[in-house]
Amino acid sequence: MKMLLVLLLLSALLGVHTVPSRRPSCYKRILHNHSCHSIPEGMASLRRVDESLQDHFWEGEGCETICYCNFKELLCCPKEIFFGPKISFVIPCNSE
Question: Element (H or E) spanning 69, and its range?
C-alpha cells in the first residue's frame, strides 16, 4: 500500500513539470539582407530604443518586446526578461 502511495505521489510531482510555462520567452531572428546598422530602414516593425543604447530596438506596436542586434542576428525578449523587473520600467519607450 505504501508503495502505491509513493508511486502516485511521484507521478503527481513529475506531472507538474510537464506543463508548459505561460511566461513568454526569448527568440532569435536571422537578418538575411540587413546588418545591425541598416535595421530601421529595412524592418518597419523595429525602432531604436534610444541613441545611448546602441543596437537595441523595440519590436511591434508597444514597448513590451526588445531586441538586441548582434552581427546579423536579433535576440528578442520581453523587456522584463531582458533588463530585469527592477530596470525595465526606466527604459524609455518611443512608441512613434
Answer: strand 65-70
Average pLDDT over residues 40-46: 70
Is residue 55 within 8 A of residue 62, CB to CB? The reply is no
List the one residue out of 29, 96, 25 whose CA is nearest residue 65: 25
pTM of the predicted model as reported, rounded to 2 decimal places: 0.64
Largest CA distance in the chain: 69
- List CB contacts of 60: < 8 A, sequence separation 6 or more: 45
Locate the domains of the chain by residue range: 23-90
Rounded to an integer, what distance in angstroms lies between the CA atom of residue 52 and that of residue 17?
41
Q: Give the pLDDT confidence of 52-74 residue by residue, as tens digits.
A: 878 888 888 888 888 999 888 88
